[in-house]
Request: fold
Amino acid sequence: MARRKSKAKQREELIQSLLGFVAASAFFGTFYFTKSLIISLMVAAIGVAVIISILVIKHKKKVDRLKRSGIHDMDKMDGHQFEHYLSHLFKSQGYSVQVTSASGDYGADLVLKKDNRKIVVQAKRYSKNIGIEAIQQVHSSMKYYQADEAWVISNRFYTKPAMNLAKANQVQLFTRQELIDMILKINPDAIPRPSQILEQVQYEEKKCNKCGHNMIIRKGPRGEFYGCSTFPKCRNVVSI
Reply:
């Protein structure tokens, strides 16, 4: 079975094809009218240089946009810090925000209120795409909180089954891109930056239910998980 190419590799090949097409079109088009090899090569080189300049400018704008949003710092947060940041983000938009208790939250991490609307939110700071569990949890919390809407907000994207389930249950999904758009739509400097949240808000302590020591976030082939800090003495793991 053929190995699927990464998005970066596909993008690289697309750019190479574009540059090749521009160079060939500029060369043969110019040569058709001028019959001059030197002029045709110069025009082809200028065409490629222009395309490269445009791509560099677009890449710079993209990098600057990501930097201003602070999304890379959000990627370093734990769930508790991510919820804390989102509470600031929604308060800046006029919502009243309740951060639910970590134990017994009944499927919602935040409860928002604005204009006679109550919204339950699942906040998912993950290192991989979000599955159907988040949609099931937040949808089931609507009745308990008597909410009008249910949202899932993540620093990542969603699996196809998760998107299908969300559509069927009218759960609104906010992807990584939509979160960035939301942050940049307001003044990012009007709220604590993600880097400040990382410094000011402590990681949520999670105790090992086997030995009582702290659990810490580790990374494995299937993504992030909580592992006992005493590993390898204690090998207890808990999914995030």
The chain is about 50% helix and 20% strand. The first strand starts at residue 96 and ends at 99.
